[in-house]
């Protein structure tokens, strides 16, 4: 097809030849500059030339979007690149890559800690732990939400408002602004107010920073010394356990007396269960009736470490009697007045599936036993002991009975601390039960509780292990 000088009128008049998919018209004024017209009527300016013996064709743009003069100038620019030995397509790809990199850098700079924290928590929730190869617990995930919460929400009880999470002040920072100076200043403001929570939040923050470094989207944004600088570590509180957060042998009588005198039998049994089993607070609170085997005297505990299978521990005689009392109360129908009230609301009464059930708690099970425990501690005139202190007390008091350390660790759900314990000790339940019964019987003797269902051998062993006055 003969070349001709392009004009606006000629461009409008170009059509595709009959029987062809497309026709190309070349400009006589600018070398390599042309117009492609398809059978559907689409028109586009193009440029064609040869580079190192190969034909290169580049689409400049639609004729409706490009002015003829600008399209001709662009063709001249492309010709200049070809003459310089550059492929216009590669030049365009490099320019696009540079633009995208610049845009990505701006996006990375604008990412806040809250944005990355949200992705981090979602990763924790959906992926297995690289350490345990198991899903993280719901409580662990919920801790991350609480740490970053703004607070101010109404509490479920008491008409108060929730406190803000320790990490919330850092959430509005840009991720690149999470410097050692910023973290150090945050610790200096948080540690005096709540040192334990601040230390826990800092450990979670360190894990978050490590995750960012291993994630392509966030790698290289957080300064490398944000959590390792001496300015930061110097602001951390001590991690030693508070002295005295454990019951002593001579305090058992007063503690058991006050706890047994509580008006709420569920709270009373729960607190005694914490001490007798050494279980974690939530492990025991989540106990269902299907987890309690009274025939073979065992409890299936939802373990913090063995999240899938849990652990099975002995059900000691005295604790079994407490749970049986709760079971009878749980299976006793309520008054007619309450039954009518339930029917009016379209509800039907049925026994609770929870061992330590609660009518007022959202989950239907005991939620906040600290109030009752603090009342009992105050009534007994004892130094303050936390709920976790009862777990610590179990491990400490067990030494009076000369129980093997591995037995106590297995009952409490601790990881094996030695090679032999990890690979060569497989204690069956009946062996654990023998030692656990002795621990409970010894505690009852120290508390002055006469419990006739305890085995005679366990009671005699407990008396033998009692120090002489």
Automatic annotation (TrEMBL):
Gene3D superfamilies: Integrase, DNA-binding domain (3.30.160.390), Intergrase catalytic core (1.10.443.10). SUPFAM superfamilies: DNA breaking-rejoining enzymes. Signal peptide: none annotated. Residues 242-437 form the Tyr recombinase domain. GO terms for molecular function: DNA binding. It comes from the Bacteria. Keywords: DNA integration, DNA recombination. One of its GO terms (biological process) is DNA integration. InterPro entries: DNA_brk_join_enz, Integrase-like_cat_sf, Integrase_catalytic, Integrase_DNA-bd_sf, Integrase_DNA_bind_dom, Phage_Integrase. It holds the Pfam family Phage_integrase. Belongs to the 'phage' integrase family. This is DUF4102 domain-containing protein. It comes from Cupriavidus oxalaticus.
């Amino acid at each position: 097809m003969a070349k001709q000088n392009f004009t606006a009128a000629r461009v409008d008049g170009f059509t595709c030849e009959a029987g062809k998919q497309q026709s190309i018209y070349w400009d006589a004024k600018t070398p390599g500059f042309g117009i492609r017209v398809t059978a559907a009527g689409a028109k586009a300016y193009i440029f064609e030339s040869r580079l190192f013996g190969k034909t290169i064709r580049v689409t400049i743009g639609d004729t409706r979007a490009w002015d003829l003069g600008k399209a001709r100038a662009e063709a001249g620019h492309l010709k200049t690149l070809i003459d310089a030995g550059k492929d216009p397509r590669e030049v365009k790809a490099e320019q696009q890559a540079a633009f995208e990199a610049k845009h990505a850098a701006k996006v990375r700079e604008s990412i806040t800690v809250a944005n990355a924290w949200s992705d981090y928590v979602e990763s924790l929730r959906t992926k297995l732990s690289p350490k345990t190869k198991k899903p993280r617990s719901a409580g662990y995930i919920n801790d991350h939400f609480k740490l970053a919460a703004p607070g101010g929400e109404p509490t479920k009880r008491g008409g108060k408002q929730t406190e803000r999470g320790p990490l919330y002040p850092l959430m509005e920072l840009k991720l690149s602004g999470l410097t050692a100076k910023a973290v150090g200043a945050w610790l200096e403001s948080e540690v005096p107010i709540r040192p334990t929570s601040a230390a826990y939040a800092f450990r979670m923050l360190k894990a978050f920073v490590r995750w960012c470094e291993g994630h392509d989207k966030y790698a290289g944004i957080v300064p490398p010394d944000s959590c390792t600088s001496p300015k930061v570590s110097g602001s951390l509180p001590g991690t030693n356990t508070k002295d005295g957060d454990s019951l002593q042998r001579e305090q058992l009588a007063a503690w058991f007396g006050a706890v047994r005198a509580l008006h709420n039998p569920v709270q009373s049994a729960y607190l005694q269960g914490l001490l007798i089993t050494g279980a974690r607070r939530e492990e025991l609170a989540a106990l269902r009736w299907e987890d309690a085997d009274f025939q073979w005297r065992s409890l299936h505990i939802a373990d913090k470490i063995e999240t899938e299978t849990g652990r099975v521990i002995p059900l000691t005689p005295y604790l079994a009697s407490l749970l049986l009392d709760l079971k009878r109360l749980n299976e006793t129908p309520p008054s007619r007045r309450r039954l009518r009230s339930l029917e009016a609301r379209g509800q039907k009464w049925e026994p609770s599936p929870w061992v330590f059930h609660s009518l007022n708690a959202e989950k239907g099970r005991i939620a906040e036993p600290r109030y009752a425990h603090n009342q009992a501690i105050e009534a007994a005139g004892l130094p303050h002991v936390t709920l976790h202190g009862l777990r610590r007390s179990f491990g400490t008091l067990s030494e009076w009975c000369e129980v093997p350390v591995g037995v106590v660790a297995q009952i409490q759900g601790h990881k094996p601390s030695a090679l032999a314990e990890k690979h060569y000790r497989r204690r069956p339940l009946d062996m654990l039960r023998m030692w656990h019964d002795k621990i409970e019987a010894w505690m009852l003797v120290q508390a002055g509780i006469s419990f006739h269902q305890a085995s005679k051998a366990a009671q005699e062993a407990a008396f033998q292990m009692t120090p002489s006055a």
